[in-house]
Specification:
The protein is mostly helical. Helices cover about 70% and strands about 5% of the residues.
């Protein structure tokens, strides 16, 4: 390990020049060390106590202790967590390994970490260790040793040296003579750890604190290691990659007490708290409650909780897709309006953005729900549009068509779109004849699509009273129902997100050089042509990454659908928690669902971003 040199004369000179500043710095450093020591002893002490608790197996009437974990299982859990951090900090696991697997030097350190975990597991499974002293020392000490080897950064050199010695045993002595100074600290740390582990009881007879107060011992070691390496890192100037690796290793070293505490605490909760039973067997049972079943995607009386969960996912995805489309269109319009020279348009765009961007989404959803519910008429006074569309506070009913014909008509439009893209493979024909030909194609395709869609007619909704004496027993037959919660959640997400998208559009357009717009003007392009052909394509390069974040926010913000009583995935699983109390596995399932949705959105937007940035400007 590098030893920092201290300039005594310079230190005395600085004290003489500004004694108050030196005193403040000294006080700050002392306070930092005191806080760090308190943090280390607090979490390390709790981790040490829990480690003894889960390592001690008290057998009563043939039954093992409820909190007992075999030492091998502890090594796999804690060691697996450390190995993940170890591999991330080393940053050696890359796709290039598959191209050149013989270059073992590029990933030898990570392989050494895997081998080290295997050795620890073999020790735990095959060596009888004391549950009160040696077992906690193996787990806590092994974690500290991992952090120490990371910050020391000699394990890679040691592993290469061992491989070369095995491959060429004749020159192994010469290799070790040349390189032993570079790895001596890591070798000493590993040997010291193994020696103390196997002789802990004997050492504890002479120095009881090593075996009985391991939390304080490791807290002192962490404190000394941290302070020493902070001094080294403050003095050295190295390559950025090395500096980043050192900083990551230091962060892991400081996080060791917290990581151990969280891991041990969760392990105890899994054994002692029934609510932490992370299994989803309860999802196979019948749900036993009603949801907005649109469009008949689950049997509300016989559907399992898994069926209800996927129904909630479908409901959420439906809302998110529509909201993303609408907020993009409205956001682009409002963003362009803010840049308009027309004062009324610019003022409207500014007011729209500032009002809805600064309004909490939950409040906006509640306001929309109240407004829509009080504005639409009651069922007995429903408003009808051409005797085909019914509007009331129970929902909006529109004519429905055959789903198969709807699919065929949409498929026809998709095929026409693919055909026009094929025609544009060598460039878009923007001549008058080309535009007219394109217009004829789309008019014909749209007419054919509508003809297919309406070839079997449509089902118009009709309203009637089931029981004449009962004023509230109105029934609607036929048609397609759009529920008010669905309308409210889409309106809230669209309005809120479109205000942010408008700012993204405005900022991206304003970041373009003025010369691009002037070039469009010199070509005789109209304002709309400049926007469509020059400005927006170039602004997309900076818009897409920001839009990616907002689209993921739409997906996550859809969890507020419970404000308007819309049955999305969060609302349905919250009802399940209230009915049966399986909070931990249910919320883990919710977390996984939202994570998968966010990753899918991010992957699609990154694909589009690569397409946008494919041509360098």
């Amino acid at each position: 390990m590098q030893t920092p040199s201290i300039d005594i004369q310079g230190l005395k000179s600085n004290i003489a020049k500004d004694p108050s500043r030196f005193a403040k710095n000294a006080l700050f450093q002392i306070l930092t060390v005191a806080i760090l020591w308190k943090y280390l002893t607090l979490f390390m002490g709790m981790s040490y106590d829990m480690s003894k608790q889960i390592s001690l197996n008290i057998v009563i009437a043939g039954n093992s202790s409820q909190t007992y974990y075999p030492l091998g299982d502890q090594v796999l859990v804690i060691g697996g967590i450390c190995l993940i951090f170890f591999a991330l900090i080393q940053n050696e696991v890359k796709f290039d390994i598959l191209r050149n697997p013989r270059d073992y030097r590029s990933y030898i350190t990570t392989i050494s970490g895997v081998i080290g975990l295997a050795i620890f597991w073999l020790i735990a499974e095959n060596v009888e260790l004391s549950p009160r002293t040696q077992a906690p020392f193996l787990i806590i000490g092994g974690t500290f040793l991992t952090g120490f080897l990371l910050i020391q950064d000699e394990l890679g050199k040691l592993s290469i040296l061992l491989v070369q010695s095995v491959a060429n045993p004749r020159n192994s002595v010469e290799l070790w003579k040349k390189s032993w100074q570079e790895v001596i600290i890591s070798i000493s740390a590993i040997l010291l750890f193994i020696t103390v582990l196997y002789n802990l009881s004997m050492i504890g007879a002479y120095i009881p604190s090593i075996s009985r107060e391991q939390d304080k011992v490791f807290s002192i070691l962490l404190l000394v290691t941290t302070i020493s390496w902070l001094l080294v890192m403050s003095k050295e100037a190295d390559r950025p990659a090395v500096v980043y690796k050192r900083h990551s290793s230091m962060a892991f070293l400081l996080s060791i007490p917290l990581i151990l505490f969280l891991a041990f605490r969760i392990m105890l909760l899994l054994r002692t708290d029934p609510t932490w039973d992370v299994s989803w067997d309860f999802m196979d049972s019948i749900a036993g409650f009603s949801i907005t079943n649109w469009p008949n995607q689950v049997n509300t009386s016989l559907g399992t909780r898994w069926d209800f969960h996927w129904a909630g996912v479908i409901n959420a995805v439906r809302v998110v897709l529509i909201s993303i489309f609408l907020c993009t269109v409205i956001g682009i319009i409002v963003g362009v309006m803010r840049l308009s020279n027309h004062r009324l348009s610019s003022l409207f765009g500014t007011v729209y953005v500032e009002v809805f961007r600064n309004m909490p989404l939950a409040l906006l959803l509640f306001t929309i729900s109240i407004t829509v519910g009080n504005t639409l008429p009651v069922m007995q006074d429903e408003f009808s549009i051409a005797n085909t569309v019914l509007l009331s506070n129970q929902g909006i009913f529109i004519p429905s068509v055959d789903p198969f014909l709807l699919f065929v008509s949409l498929l026809l439009l998709a095929l026409v779109k693919a055909y026009t893209r094929y025609l544009d493979r060598d460039g878009f024909d923007d001549s008058e004849e080309g535009v007219r030909s394109r217009f004829k194609i789309w008019v014909g395709a749209s007419a054919a699509s509508v003809a297919i869609l309406l070839s079997r007619g449509w089902d118009v909704p009709t309203i009637w009273k089931r029981i004449p004496e009962s004023p509230g027993s109105w029934v609607v037959e036929g048609g397609f129902e759009i529920t008010l919660p669905f309308i409210c959640i889409i309106a809230g997400l669209t309005i809120y997100t479109s205000a942010i998208v408008a700012e993204i559009v405005r900022g991206s357009i304003q970041s373009l050089p003025r010369g691009q717009i002037e070039a469009g003007i010199s070509l005789g392009l109209s304002p709309f042509q400049r926007l469509r052909l020059v400005i927006i394509p170039q602004a997309l390069r900076s818009m897409v990454p920001a839009l990616n974040n907002q689209y993921m926010n739409v997906w996550k913000n859809s969890s507020l659908a419970m404000v308007v009583a819309y049955n999305d995935v969060f609302y349905i699983n919250l009802v399940i928690v209230n009915k049966i109390g399986k909070a931990v596995p249910t919320f883990i399932l919710i977390l996984i669902t939202y994570q998968i949705g966010s990753l899918v959105i991010s992957a699609l937007m990154n694909m589009y971003n690569r397409r946008v940035t494919r041509v360098q400007i």
